[in-house]
Automatic annotation (TrEMBL):
One of its GO terms (molecular function) is sigma factor antagonist activity. It comes from Edaphosphingomonas fennica. The lineage of its organism: Bacteria, Pseudomonadati, Pseudomonadota, Alphaproteobacteria, Sphingomonadales. InterPro entries: FecR, Ferrdict_sens_TM. It comes from the Bacteria. Residues 105-194 form the FecR protein domain. This is Iron dicitrate transport regulator FecR.
Length: 310
């Protein structure tokens, strides 16, 4: 296993490396592989730091004359070439380590994907979502849109950072859910803690705490929620406690791939209950109407939730 992990690590130094999906499959096949790979990657990073911290070479001192100047010249040429090669190697290593190499993973509405990262962390991407990661530094992620559940292996030296909706989230040993959509940014912490905008407001959210930052303004709302409810979508359940029906509709669209919109007269109505994401589409919609106490109509681009006629 160590040999295979080392082989992946060496191959990933090549800028043309493109087998990231195969690498992710290799990691996901055995949890121990991520641990071994992370150990080797950390040792590799330490070597890079040692090279970066190495003192500059001393100025060359001319050697005294010897009986065979040809030998001295040949030795000097070899030594100079070795030093030059070493400097090129160190310089190349530093550039390779620092260069960003972003890539994106996207899911269609109703599709889900689990992403195993090299350090043992995991990202569960919900439907209709897009995340950008970095091959060179998988401790940084950008949720471009949609919903993702982050299960992070904490490292004090290298905090895991998530960018979403113009904000920065920094983990403190954490399982947390992030939604970035038209309404703004929603963060829910199931385990550990997350710091919202550490270089700005620096709001720390512990387990069971939530935060919502509205789009296009500076309003930030804090709240509480059941940690189990935050991650229930992975088990096919949506749990709500006073959530606007407009938000519920977006969750359904993302999870099931059903284009569901809401009429203005019911969008802000709060809903408390549990929605099971199972069964056939038609039967699901039949159950959904009575559960939300709305009427469901077929629209031009999907289904519309409207108020019941009195």
């Amino acid at each position: 296993m160590r040999e295979a992990a080392l082989d992946w690590l060496i191959r990933q130094r090549d800028p043309a490396f493109g087998e990231w999906e195969a690498f992710g499959d290799w990691l996901a096949a055995d949890p121990d592989r991520a641990h071994v790979y992370h150990e080797l990657a950390a040792a590799d990073a330490d070597v890079g730091e040692w090279f970066a911290a190495a003192p500059p070479a001393a100025a060359p001192v001319e050697a005294p004359p010897v009986a065979n100047p040809v030998t001295r010249r040949r030795f000097g040429g070899w030594l100079g070439g070795a030093i030059a090669a070493s400097l090129v190697a160190v310089s190349g290593y530093t550039v390779l380590q620092n260069r960003a190499d972003p890539y994106s993973i996207e899911t269609a509405p109703g599709e889900r994907r689990s992403i195993a990262l090299a350090d043992g962390s995991q990202v569960d991407l919900n439907g209709g979502s897009r995340i950008t990661l970095d091959h060179r530094n998988q401790r940084i992620a950008t949720l471009d849109r949609g919903e993702a559940l982050f299960t992070v292996v904490h490292d004090d030296r290298r905090p895991f950072i998530v960018h979403a909706a113009g904000a920065e989230l920094r983990d403190v040993g954490t399982v947390f859910n992030v939604v970035s959509d038209r309404a703004g940014l929603s963060v829910a912490v199931a385990e550990g803690a997350v710091v919202y905008n550490p270089r700005g407001e620096s709001v720390e959210l512990g387990a069971g705490r939530t935060l919502h930052a509205r789009a296009n303004d500076s309003v930030v709302t804090l709240g509480t929620a059941d940690p189990a409810a935050m991650v229930a979508w992975k088990q096919g359940r949506l749990i709500y406690d006073g959530t606007p029906i407009g938000v519920v509709a977006e969750d359904i669209s993302r999870n099931l791939g059903l284009p569901v919109s809401v009429a203005p007269d019911v969008a802000a109505r709060p809903f408390r209950g549990v929605i099971a994401l199972d069964g056939q589409r038609d039967r699901f919609l039949e159950r959904l109407g009575p559960l939300l106490d709305v009427r469901i109509e077929r629209g031009g681009k999907g289904w519309v939730l409207t108020a019941k006629q009195k």
